Amino acid sequence: MLKVKEVMAKSILNKSKIYDYCLNPYTGCEHNCTYCYARLFMKRYSGHKEPWGEFVDVKINAPDLLKKQLERAKKGIVWISSVCDPYQSLEAKYKLTRQCLKELVMKQFPVNIQTKSKLVLRDLDLLLQFEEIDVGFSIATDDERIAKLFESGASSVKERLNALEKIHSKGIRTFAFVGPLLPGNPEKLVGLLDGKTDKIYIDKMNYLYTIRRFYQQHGLEEATTDKFFLEYKERLMNELKKRKMKFEILF
User: Fold this and answer.
1) Which residue of 32, 69, 127, 251 has the fewest CB atoms within a 10 Å radius of its CB?
2) How far apart are CA 127 and CA 167, in angstroms?
């Protein structure tokens, strides 16, 4: 059962090594992705005893805190989010991500949003007000069964693709993060992404040792080998080049 706790954060706009800032309206994530790197440290960092995916701290003062921090912050790209999905289902109730976007658009801070949820479409009116914004979806496989197995709380692959297409059609710069590479049909996946995204980023399973047993339990041992990752990458690259789509390999 999910344990939800409302908390007061001390800081919400934090320095990041990937972008200039990161913003996490929540600690914890309902999507409960088996491969999430946050599993390795966020439980210890947050002081929770519950397994990752079974707790969420809601930073109810995030919008007010952000407003104050933006007054003295140097303009830079804000990544939403680094250790949670900003559009997990609790966002429908609390609207913290939406309220933070309102503060960011008033100051016209560039924003990079990465999610696995169709809920981002709710905020399309705000996204269109940004002068500089990128919106991306993590889509690691074309196979709905595999996606449900590894990303039990996320929107379906079809729902993510539909949301990506709608946002892209509005002239907003979009991307797909194909990572970590999960079992599926790479050529089909590229075909599904074609025309919906400006760029695709590809990454392997970086913390495989933490979930190798999960792969074994579901008869997917072959997908843990270097051979799998290299062959899958080559097939993705070949199809992307064939379709003249922009991409970047991250491993």
Assistant:
1) 251
2) 9
